[in-house]
């Protein structure tokens, strides 16, 4: 019996940019098999939800989306013949999901998403003996994957490895993604060349732990990778994400400082500044050492833009611990800061650490951190007035067609602010252009300026 007569697929990707890359690889495999991507669920014979389960809120979002799209299996609503749930949620809860979500036809975990076409064919032919495919491979499954870049054509995320060896006590990722498995430099340079040939100008390097890349390989390492990526014609910006301060060496700092393509931007997760909490998080660094690394970064790379993430309300966090965190944030003066409320996740060591911090205290501390960071950003943005920045044009402003918006090298896609251009000097601007913009004012987290001739 042929289920997929039109071979149409609707894809929903939830969670982080690493999940997005997995989704794009699945779409690439489906595209090679003749599937057509549709945007309306009622037109899809196959519906795939690539889920996240990092924290409670992401689990709730994933479950709600699954239940919402399951409605299109009803013949009076849609034509869906195969409802697929992939990613972190089934990797973590496949047995429970099978029991509670009979409407789902396939559960595919974080290590077997590349099998999507074969699994759909086996399901169509009635050859599957199980619904769940959640094995974590010991090695990265392939060096070259088909991929449909669903991000704007000028930008792409490049996932350089899978899994993580760090074992932070609050994090479930090593359980659901496995241990570190790095791709080769050759495969990553080749993929970047393919992306550049399609118009990509900006590459954002991601993994669970960028600083550990290549430690499982005999020869390849991050410096070799960066050297290779710098040779790719058409790539103007290379941005680094999730480089832990523990492993940030002078050699890496010098590489960023001397490169013409690597952005003076670093996402460096610190999580906390209290030595007591850092130790309980299983972080191999002290708050003082983090601040020293930040100081050296700014000395070696003047004007570097720093992004980080912190967790407020980790179990046993005292008022003294929190004040250390708050003071650390004020001293570090991060340009971009993600503040996460601690989420108690079963299966992590932190789940068993007591006492817990009450939600009311977490919220109060969150607000204090948010206000402190807002003041920092206002001060930093004010120093940008009068400067001329390279800006990657992204198109019309989100709220009005009268303005153009883009990003400078210190603004990553989706997570940081924008540069709003209020005077183009009658120069025709195309999406994907990189132009000079003179900054004249600030607007919350955004900058405002005009084209500089």
List keywords for this structure.
12 helices; 3 domains; OB fold (Dihydrolipoamide Acetyltransferase, E2P); 453 residues; 19 strands; 6-stranded parallel β-sheet; Rossmann fold; pyruvate-formate lyase- activating enzyme; alpha/beta
Care to describe what's here?
- The chain has 453 residues and is α/β, with parallel strands linked by helices.
- The protein has three domains: 8-133, 3-Layer(aba) Sandwich (Rossmann fold); 155-382, pyruvate-formate lyase- activating enzyme (Alpha-Beta Horseshoe); 388-451, Nucleic acid-binding proteins (OB fold (Dihydrolipoamide Acetyltransferase, E2P)), CATH 2.40.50.
- It has helices at 17-32, 56-70, 88-100, 116-124, 173-177, 185-197, 222-230, 250-258, 275-280, 287-300, 319-332, 359-382; strands spanning 8-13, 36-37, 46-51, 82-87, 106-108, 132-133, 155-159, 161-162, 181-182, 202-206, 237-240, 262-267, 305-312, 336-341, 388-396, 404-407, 419-423, 434-443, 446-451.
- The strands form four sheets. It has a six-stranded parallel β-sheet, with helices on both faces. Strands 7-10-11-12-13-14 form a six-stranded parallel β-sheet. Strands 15-16-17-19-18 form a five-stranded mixed beta barrel.
- Helix 6 (185-197) runs parallel beside helix 7 (222-230).
Let me know the average pLDDT: 92
Distance between the termini: 64 Å
Overall 3D shape: globular
Question: Would you identify the CATH H-level superfamily of the largest domain?
Answer: tm_1862 like domain
Determine the fraction of residues in helical runs and give it as a percent range. Answer: 25-40%
CATH class of the largest domain: Alpha Beta
Which ranges are low-confidence, i.e. pLDDT below 50, for 5 or more consecutive residues?
none
CATH topology tier name of the largest domain: pyruvate-formate lyase- activating enzyme
Radius of gyration based on Cα positions? 23 Å
Structural class: alpha/beta
Q: Please report the total strand number as a whole number.
A: 19
How many helices? The count is: 12
Total of domains: 3
């Amino acid at each position: 019996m042929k289920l997929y007569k039109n071979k149409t697929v609707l894809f929903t990707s939830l969670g982080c940019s690493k999940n997005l890359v997995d989704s794009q690889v699945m779409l690439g495999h489906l595209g090679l098999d003749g599937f057509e991507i549709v945007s309306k669920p009622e037109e899809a014979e196959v519906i795939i939800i690539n889920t996240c389960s990092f924290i409670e809120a992401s689990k709730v979002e994933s479950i709600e989306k699954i239940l919402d799209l399951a409605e299109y299996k009803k013949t009076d609503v849609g034509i869906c013949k195969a409802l697929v749930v992939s990613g972190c949620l089934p990797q973590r809860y496949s047995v429970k999901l099978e029991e509670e979500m009979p409407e789902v036809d396939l559960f595919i975990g974080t290590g077997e998403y590349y099998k999507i076409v074969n699994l759909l064919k086996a399901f169509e032919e009635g050859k599957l003996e199980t619904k769940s495919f959640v094995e974590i491979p010991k090695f990265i499954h392939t060096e070259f994957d088909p991929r449909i870049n669903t991000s704007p054509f000028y930008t792409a995320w490049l996932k350089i490895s899978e899994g993580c060896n760090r074992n932070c006590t609050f994090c479930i990722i090593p359980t659901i993604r496995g241990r570190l498995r790095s791709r080769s430099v050759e495969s990553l340079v080749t993929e970047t060349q393919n992306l550049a040939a399609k118009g990509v100008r900006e590459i954002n390097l991601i993994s669970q732990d960028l600083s550990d890349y290549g430690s499982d390989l005999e020869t390849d390492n991050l410096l070799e990778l960066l050297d290779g990526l710098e040779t790719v014609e058409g790539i103007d910006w290379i941005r680094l994400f999730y480089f832990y301060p523990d492993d940030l060496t002078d050699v890496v700092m010098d590489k960023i400082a001397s490169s013409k393509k690597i952005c003076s931007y670093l996402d460096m997760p610190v999580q906390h500044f209290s030595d007591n909490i850092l130790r309980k998080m299983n972080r191999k660094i002290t708050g003082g050492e983090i601040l020293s690394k930040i100081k050296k970064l700014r000395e070696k790379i003047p004007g570097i833009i720093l992004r980080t993430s912190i967790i407020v309300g980790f179990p046993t966090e005292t008022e003294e611990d929190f004040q250390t965190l708050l003071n650390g944030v004020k001293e570090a003066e991060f340009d971009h800061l993600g503040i996460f409320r601690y989420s108690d996740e079963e299966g992590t060591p932190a789940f068993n650490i007591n006492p817990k911090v009450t939600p009311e205290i977490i919220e109060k501390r969150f607000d204090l951190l948010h206000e402190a960071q807002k003041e920092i950003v206002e001060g930093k943005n004010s120093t940008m007035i009068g400067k001329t920045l390279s800006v990657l044009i992204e198109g019309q402003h989100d709220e009005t067609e009268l303005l153009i918006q883009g990003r400078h090298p210190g603004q990553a896609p989706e997570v940081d602010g924008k540069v709003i251009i209020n005077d183009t000097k009658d120069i025709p601007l195309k999406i994907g252009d990189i132009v000079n913009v003179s900054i004249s004012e600030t607007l919350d987290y955004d900058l405002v300026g005009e084209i500089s001739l």
